[in-house]
Structure formats: C-alpha cells, structure tokens
Write a structure and sequence with these properties.
It is a single chain. Helices cover about 25% and strands about 30% of the residues. It has about 350 residues and is α+β, with helices and mostly antiparallel strands. The protein folds into 2 domains: about 140 residues, Thermophilic metalloprotease-like, CATH 3.40.1830; about 200 residues, no CATH class. The strands form 3 sheets. Strands 14-13-10-6-5-18-19 form a 7-stranded antiparallel β-sheet, with helices on one face. Helix 2 packs across helix 3.
C-alpha cells in the first residue's frame, strides 16, 4: 500500500490516535477536506510515507474527507508531479494540507512558494520535509517529538519570543567555543509552538523552536562551533568532529574542522546555481530548540527543535522577516548554548 509493506502499515495504524491528536491540537481539524502529500522515498527510507499514511489512516478512521497523494522524491529546484500540482490547485479555499516528503515538495509555479500559496488560499498546514535523512526505526522518536505537552512548550516559547522581540542584541556562547552576536534591533521572533489554528497559517511538525532574523545583512559577528548536526548538500548529518564557522559582518568567511569541506562544497554548489551567489553565505537566522521530546538524529526537521540546543541558519530568510532571498537555507545545530539578551543572561 502506497509503497509501504503491510508490516509497516500495521505499525503505523497502531498509532492512529496519536496522529489524530496532532491534527486535532495543531490544526483544530473539523470537517474540512484534508489533502496529504507524500512520496515513495528510498528502499530503506520510508519515513515520509509512514507519516503521510499515519495522518491519512487517522483521518479516515474518524470519518474525515482525506486524500493522500504520492509522488517521486523532489529536490528544491524540481517541480512537483502534475497530479500533485492539480490537486493543490483544485483544493477549495480554507481547507487543510499536510506535507510529509523525503526532501522537498517541489515547485508548482515560478514564484509561488507553498507557504504563500496556503496563505493566499486560507489553508492551514503541517509540513515535514527532509525526511530522507530519517531511518524507519526513528518512527517512534518522531511520534514522541510530535506528542509533547504543547501548553508547557507554548509557555516557554512565548516567553523567549517576548524577550527577543524587545532585544537589540543577542549573544550566544558555549563551552565548546561558540561566541557570536546578533543585532536584532527592531526584528520580530517567531515562536513555532505547534499551533496552526489561524486561516492560512501552518508550520513544521515536529514543532518547537523560536527563531529570529538579524537586522540587515551585516549584523552578525563571531564564531559558531557546530557540534550537533549540520545540513550539507546531501542532507543533514550528525557531527562527529566539531566544525567551526567564522562570521564577519553577517557573512561566513572561514570554515575549520575535519568535515569543513562538506559545508564548503555545499555553499559552492548553491553559489554555482544561484542568481545572486553572494547571498548564499549570509547568516539568516538564530534559533533555539524548545521541544522536550526531540532528540538529535541527523534530520534537521527534528534536530533544530531539540531542547538544550541552538542553531544558526545560513542563507534565505525573507519568508520570516529578513532581507535575504536566495536558493539556499541551511540550519546548523550546536549544543548547550547560553544566551545573553542585551547583556543579561537569559534563563531558559
């Protein structure tokens, strides 16, 4: 079924109530149409199909009008399959869309992003991308990260957002050597707390981070020692040996470490394809993980949410209030951060 063996679907079906709980709590699902988009994944990497089928089975069991579509895995520059584009286009306004894909959904218009499409059509949505990095035995870990105490996570997330919204400067340090400062004056933080109740709104599942773009293009200085996970051209990987990025005036100017070449190759690949290659190495985001159920597994959709970590993203940030628009956005996670907001240590 849907490229999944029966033993796999049997495992997924046992967790039907947990998938429905996610839809009920995060989307406030009612009697709307639900369009679920997934893909077939690779032979040993079926997480996208498992999650997609989990939502579908849960919806059907509750008598909801759900449709699930599968396509071949897509990279960011590829177009979604025709039947997926048609289904998205034909979906009436103010319904629900759930995406669980190995890499990207794929493009379905020259300038139209999925997020903007949902905003225009009034669709609430959940998205999990980059699932090609996840092995099937991580399925239970994903369910744990998606079924947390959301009220407690909301309280923490909104408290951090309130601090960051008022901040002029955020500094982050770690014992491993990270020491970087962000000018965030006048910028607004986003609290990803798993509540996608408003028309046209949606976000990641698992949820659980607060993030903010820097002010302008030059307001970040210092170094970050990546000792959690990093996003390369081939996907996210757990870091065995720390990689250090040096940032001057908002730009990555040097990368050190045994695996530094993996990031250099990644940046170079996107610079070669970018219309404005000078934007690829710009720092676009500072984030903090707040999900107590998430663990580092080498998949950025999960890793950046882990409580007790922070992350820095290089590249595009225009969709959440920044000034950088480019084809690349890569998150890199580091452990045990200490935050200072306008010089005062932040209690997290």
């Amino acid at each position: 079924m849907f490229g999944l063996d029966k033993p796999v679907t049997d495992v997924v079906e046992k967790h039907s109530s947990r998938f429905y709980k996610i839809m009920k709590n995060s989307l406030k699902v009612k009697k709307e149409d639900i369009l679920i988009i997934s893909d077939y994944g690779a032979d040993d990497k079926k997480m996208s199909g498992m999650l997609g089928y989990g939502y579908y089975h849960a919806a059907k069991k509750k008598g909801l009008n759900a449709t699930i579509l599968f396509q071949d895995p897509k990279k960011g520059f590829m177009f979604a399959d025709d039947h997926v584009i048609e289904a998205l286009t034909r979906l009436e306004k103010n319904n629900l869309v759930i995406v669980a894909v190995s890499n990207k959904l794929g493009r379905f218009g020259e300038e139209k992003s999925f997020r903007n499409f949902c905003a225009e059509r009034g669709h609430r949505f959940l998205s999990a991308t980059g699932l090609a990095d996840v092995k099937p035995h991580h399925f239970d870990l994903f369910l744990e990260a998606m079924n947390v105490n959301y009220s407690r996570m909301k309280k923490k997330g909104l408290a951090i957002k309130k601090l960051w919204d008022k901040a002029n400067e955020i500094r982050v340090k770690t014992e491993a050597g990270t020491d970087i400062t962000f000018d965030v004056s006048g910028m607004e933080a986003i609290a990803n707390i798993g509540e996608y109740h408003e028309t046209g709104k949606g976000g990641n599942m698992p949820a659980g981070e607060v993030y903010i773009p820097p002010k302008g293009l030059e307001g970040v200085n210092g170094k970050v020692v990546i000792d959690g996970s990093m996003k390369t051209e081939d996907g996210a990987i757990l870091v065995d040996s720390p990689v250090t990025m040096y940032v001057e005036k908002g730009r990555v100017v040097r990368i050190d470490g045994k695996d530094a070449h993996l990031l250099e190759q990644t940046f170079q690949k996107f610079e070669d394809r970018a219309k404005y290659p000078e934007r690829v190495r710009l720092v676009g985001e500072l984030g903090i993980g707040i999900n107590p159920g998430a663990v580092l597994i080498g998949s950025m959709i999960m890793d950046e949410k882990v409580l007790g970590t922070a992350h820095i993203a290089i590249g595009s940030n225009y969709w959440f209030g920044g000034e950088i628009k480019t084809i690349y956005h890569g998150d890199h996670v580091f452990k045990n951060p200490t935050f200072y907001v306008d010089g005062k240590k932040m209690d997290v």
